[in-house]
Structures are given as C-alpha cells and as structure tokens.
Design a protein that fits this description.
The protein is α/β, with parallel strands linked by helices. It is built from 13 helices and eight strands. It has a single domain (about 5-10, about 40-55, about 65-260), classed as Alpha-Beta Barrel (TIM Barrel). Strands 1-2-3-4-5-6-7-8 form an eight-stranded parallel β-barrel, surrounded by six helices. α1 (about 15-30) links the parallel β1 (about 5-10) and β2 (about 40-45). The structure holds 1,3-dihydroxyacetonephosphate. The site of 1,3-dihydroxyacetonephosphate has 14 residues, from β8.
Length: about 260
C-alpha cells in the first residue's frame, strides 16, 4: 500500500506571528529546489494562522510553498456563540486551514478533553471539510500496567464514534505515546511499529481492511533528525507529528528529508 507520508509541525504554544514569518522565510529558502514525496503541514498557534497563510500565499508561485498545508491545533465542537476563548471550524476555514489536530494528549490531560468531546470535534471538523489529525496514545503508567491495547482501543472506538467510512478516509491518526512527548525518550522503532500495527488492526475491525490499509498513521514523541529515518522505515508508520524539533527550520527539514530517505516500498 502506497501511503503518502505526512510530516506535521505542531508548534504548540510557541511561535507568534513574527517568529512564524521568520521561520517560514528560512524554511522556504532551504526548501527551494527540493521536493519530497510527502505532505508537509504546519500547525501554528491560532494567532499566527493569518501570517502563515499570508506568507505561504505570497510565495505561492513556487511549488514548494503550495505543498505546505496549514493545520490548526484545536477547534470548538460548537458552531458559534457564547464560548469565550474558543475558535470555530468556519473561522479556521477563512484561513485556508486544511487540517486540525484533535485529541492531543495535552488537550486531554491539561484541559480535560474526553473521548466524547474529541468525537464531537471530529464531527464538527468534518462538517467544515477539515481533516482531523486524531491523536491517541498511552501514558507510561498505562503501558507498564499492560493496558496499551485497551487504552488505544477505547480512544479509537470512542473518538471515532459514528464517524462514517467517507469521513474516516479524510482522517490522519497520530500515535503519540505520552511518555515520549517532550521527554527526549523516543519509542523504539519496534515499540512504535507494534503500536501502529495495533491501531491499524483496530481501524480494520471498525472500517474494514481496505480503509485501514489507506489510513495514514503518524508517530509523535521526541522525533528528531537522528531517529526519523529508522522510525519511518517501519511498515505502519506514515509520517511524524513533531513538537520541539519542528521549531527550527533546519531540523524540521532534516526530519522530512531523513524520513523520506527510508520509506518502506
Ligand atoms: P515532541 O516532538 O516535542 O516530543 O512533541 C511531540 C508532540 O506532542 C507533537 O504533537
């Protein structure tokens, strides 16, 4: 199965508008003349979306610029109204956002997002034709207690409740073991591959083999230029969701380059 890898920068609460502009100018100049058989996505904070859109589109003459897709880091499950601090999917559409990260472990742990809330957001994103990057992953305690499969199965089943086959085809899953996020500890490629194979098998149970074979599953958690190639060589790993190492243009580019150098055929 030929799945196009997807490398996404999740900047989290970093990179205001001026830092976004600086990053992008540097990144685009490094990218010039190169193309990768991969999708490149950047998820800045909401307040930097306008700058990202503006810089990408003002350099729109180059193919490089056009191949970068924009993601939001969150969206509201509501359409509009009295939800102080929230951002709706239609507002995101105005910034030409393609993807939205949903269910990130930081949203689950710090902001109390439940599988039901994440499910509502996935439905809302699909109504606006945004593609969810649906994050799942276990804590170290859950893994050590032998609950990896139960945790992932529950997150997938409840997060995707009532999501149609058609919408599922537009979703990217990101497996991010919580213990590997921002810690410098990466899952070994075997641990990551095993978890990805499990995720794909659960999706196959829910949506059939055909859909499962087409779904892209990113790995996230301390991905760096030095480990990207080994992780991306795993048959069920189809790209990466990158935090810290995507804050610097050279390092993000090297992850993409190294990851693409070692794709399974
Ligand atoms: P790090 O790459 O900083 O570990 O973050 C991973 C992550 O949470 C991406 O969503």
């Amino acid at each position: 199965m030929n799945r196009k890898p997807i490398f996404a920068a999740n900047w989290k609460m970093n990179m205001g508008a001026s830092a976004t502009e600086d990053f992008l100018k540097s990144f685009l100049s490094k990218l010039l003349g190169q193309s990768f058989p991969a999708e490149i996505v950047i998820a800045p904070p909401f307040v930097s979306l306008a700058k990202l859109t503006e810089v990408l589109h003002s350099s729109g003459a180059s193919n490089e610029a056009q191949s970068i897709q924009i993601a939001a880091q969150n969206c509201s499950e509501h359409d509009a109204g009295a939800y102080t601090g929230e951002v709706s999917v239609l507002m995101l559409r105005e910034f030409l956002v393609h993807y939205v990260i949903l269910g990130h472990s930081e949203r689950r742990a710090i902001y109390g997002e439940t599988d039901a809330v994440i499910n509502a957001k996935i439905h809302k994103a699909r109504e606006a034709n945004l593609k969810p990057i649906f994050c799942i992953g276990e804590t170290l305690a859950q893994r050590e207690a032998g609950h990896l499969e139960t945790v992932l199965r529950t997150q997938i089943t409840e997060g995707l409740n009532n999501v149609s086959d058609k919408d599922m085809a537009e979703i990217v899953v990101a497996y991010e073991p919580v213990w590997a996020i921002g810690t410098g500890v990466t899952a070994s490629s075997q641990q990551a591959q095993d978890a990805h194979a499990l995720v794909r098998s659960v999706i196959a149970e829910l949506y059939g083999q055909d859909t499962a074979a087409k779904i892209r599953i990113q790995y996230g958690g301390s991905v760096k230029p030095a480990n990207a190639a080994e992780l991306m060589a795993c048959p069920d790993i189809d790209g990466a969701l990158i935090g810290g190492a995507a804050l610097e243009p050279q390092s993000f580019l090297e992850i993409i380059r190294n990851g693409c150098s070692n794709q399974p055929s």
